Amino acid sequence: MLLAPSILASDFANLQSEVEMLNKSQADWIHIDIMDGVFVPNISFGIPVCKAIAKHAKKHLDVHLMIVNPENYVENFARAGANTISVHIEACQHLHRNLQQIRNLGCQAGIAVNPHTSISQLENVIEETDLVCLMSVNPGFGGQKFIEQTYKKVSELKELILKTGSKALIEIDGGVNADNAKKLVDAGADVLVAGSFVFSSSDPMETISNIKHIS
Ligand code: DX5
Ligand code: ZN
After folding, report:
1. Is 28 a catalytic site residue?
2. Residue of 28, 33, 62, 190 marked active site
3. Residue 138, class by beta-carbon neighbours within 10 Å (0-12 exposed, 13-18 middle, 19+ buried)?
4. Which residues partner with 43 through β-bridges?
5. Catalytic site residues (predicted)?
6. Which of its termini does the chain have fewer beta carbons within 10 Å around, N or C?
7. Architecture of the 2-214 domain
């Protein structure tokens, strides 16, 4: 299992030390949430902050774009140091083209999927994607409650991946904690994003190590 702490829950006034802590920790990736105030009812940060994180990060940067018209910005995020770029299926008129665009930039292409979106909608693009980010909360905010329906979606997605021979990783994003991590991995999750559970704990490095060992 790969663990991707979400920088959204970190102390933005001390971003460099937060990134250095993640470098030293057992975290595998750093999850970077980009919110535009249009696709989701919140604004986080953008390309310059991603670039600043990349300057200090020694881990794979997993950029989650919760924005409309992502095709206008993916090149800048790739230049800013993103390794994986996920776009929302609900925000893309031409998802197939958007995924190719991301791969052509030398990044891994991910599809993020809102809780209300069915796995069947991924059938025609599963072979064009390197990762499916299943949202286990409605996107826009950290610290929300995990939606239990997610387990069923993980199993459905795993089945689709096995059936098609796709190599896509299954990522779970939202409300991940020590209580659900193992069950998610057992259901087929490859990557777990954890924001507030990691950064609200008294010792984030130890919390990261604990989740890595639980699952
Ligand atoms: C939600 C974001 C998540 C969020 C996860 O819109 O996409 O990545 O940061 O935070 P927690 O783990 O606190 O739910
Ligand atoms: Zn996210």
Report:
1. no
2. 33
3. middle
4. 36
5. 33 (proton acceptor), 173 (proton donor)
6. N
7. Alpha-Beta Barrel (3.20)
28 is in an annotated binding site: no
- The amino acid at residue 177 is N
Task: For residue range 77-114, list pLDDT tens digits in order.
Answer: 999 999 999 999 999 999 999 999 999 999 999 999 99
**Cβ atoms of 126 and 149 closer than 8 Å:** no
What's the distance, Cα to Cα, between the start and end of the chain in Å? 7
CA 36 to mean position of chain CA atoms = 16
Q: How far is CA 62 from CA 8, 125, 151, 163, 192, in A?
A: 12, 20, 22, 26, 11
Count the residues in the chain. Answer: 215
Q: Which ligand is nearest to the CA of 140?
A: 1
Give the whole-angstrom CA distance, residue 98 versus residue 63: 15
Whether the Cβ atoms of residue 193 and residue 31 lie closer than 8 Å to each other = yes
Name beta bridge partners: 132: 111, 170
Whole-complex ipTM:
0.99
Among residues 36, 62, 173, 190, the one annotated as catalytic is 173
Burial of 161 (0-12, 13-18, 19+ CB in 10 A): buried
